[in-house]
Amino acid sequence: MKGAVLFLISLQVLLLSCQAQNRPSPAIVIHGGAGTIERGSMSPEKEVAIRADLQMALDTAYALLESGETALRAVEAAIVMLEDSPHFNAGKGAVMNIEGRHELDASVMWGQDLSAGAVAAMSRTRNPILAAMAVRAHSPHVLLAGEGAESFAREQGLAEVDNSYFTVPMVKQRWEAGKRTGEYNPASPADSKFGTVGAVALDLSGNLAAGTSTGGMMFKKYGRIGDSPIIGAGTYADNATCAVSCTGHGEYFIRLGIAKDVSDQMRYAEIGLEQAAKHSIHDRLSSLGGSGGLIAMDREGKIAMEFNTKGMYRAYKNESSEEVLIYEAP
Ligand code: ASP
Which of 92, 128, 197, 266 gives a 20 to 30 Å CA spacing to 120? Predict the structure, then answer.
């Protein structure tokens, strides 16, 4: 009898340790936009500040994952921090449209059930990513825009600010210089930095999530909405394949459905994450003439960070390593 009990106990211990070994280890990747980001193009102080903000968002999100929080919650936390940072084109620090106002877009997707939420052309909600989270969790819809999105966010109790809250001096100066010289063309943002922010994460339960938030593109007009709030273009997550968040010239990402393109290659062609991400950026996007990049993660926690621009603010952390990167060559 005693022998049988001991046998059962050791069997249970063995089972538990097997489960622990099979448990996915958490991982997070974030980005702060791709673009013409070259060594020496910003002051050393600014680079230090940008790296510090990326690191803080990374650490906060990773700690949440380690404590057992969902990938969605980690993505939300990272993006809120990057929206609150003045260094990125999302939330505070967002670019300005042709009229000198800020219009913000954001989206999230949960890989477990393919549920998603997104908002577009928001001008008062302080953290658009929280509005996207609320659309996913508390509405029967996927995408709300403009005044309707704003009313919904207010009903959800989200903080509102004056549109000028999003303005930072550097963006204002760029906008004023462009206005003065007329040297801007919203359709050809060759010199742009696409400072959109995004995150993808894998949690302890093996669920993937993705999110993206942006001010869009400088001097955009006519109520222009980019790829960031479009599920399948700027954001996608499916536990069966991967989670993706994009940054770049949104019109191209929409036309190519880039985020879902990565997932589709994995699902239908059984291509691995890295190869799929490379193909979407360097073959599909580049051959159409678009520029930008993406971060992606598969259900094993493998990551991809691809871009066809000079640089992309990006960072990742998992149980074995972490890095904050800006330029093409580390
Ligand atoms: N993709 C964004 C947009 O087109 C811009 C960016 O990535 O910064 O709105």
Answer: 266
